[in-house]
Amino acid sequence: MNKLGLIAGNGVFPLEVAAGARKRGIKVIAVAHLNESDRAIDSIADDVTWIKVGELQKIIDAFNRAGVSEAAMAGGISRARLKDSFAPDARALAMLASIGRFSDDAVLRGVAREVEREGIRMIDPVPMIEHWLAPAGIAAGPAPSEAQLRDLDLAFAVARQLGSFDIGQTVAVRDGVVAAVEAVEGTDGALRRAAAMVGAGLVVAKAAKPGQDLRFDRPAIGPATIDLLGEIGAALVGIEAGIALILECDRTLDLARAKNIAVFGHTWTTRSGDA
Asked: What is the rounded CA–CA span in Å between residue 5 and residue 122?
């Protein structure tokens, strides 16, 4: 591969994928989203086209102009901001009409299908930063208590069951009680809501949904996650070992140690239907 098309959402993930590709000598042709993507992408990617959310044809046109044959998605789009920034073009409207269900995974698969119809293969971006995949067990912070590990098991079980309904990736538990499940407000809103209800000491799980296509959407934590967990007094964040990403890994884990927050790579043996 000598060129990578990058559909950039929000957060640091697309920036790090672009930087990782550049380090490998791969030219990055990015399509970034207004009011979502970090403007720093302009200084990392070789070429950037800025679009509104839903301008699907512009994504395809940018990749075709640059001669891109492989592309990846990195970073999310805030559902809460869609009411202000969603501007679907004719191709996006036709795609949405064809999928029937507007879940995150269905929409991402629909976008990927349209891109691949143009002969552009959609790939997993993680090989660009695979050293950031979460390890199993304690990655930073104090060892969890048995009670906290039970809370974490519960949080992951809830996340796995609700994931099939496309109800977010984050669940917060304290002392055996589910305090919040991520919905349209996003991870930060859900965690602040949980802390407001039950106080400090939350155990938090971030999990992929059953059947989720990990090429397009993968749970991740980063420095901003740890800052928020510190702000609300959370005790532990669990992420799926070998599935989730620890963005800016060294910085994130150092910050967790400084804030006395445990980062734990959770495993289970009965995942089914995952891509």
From this structure: 9
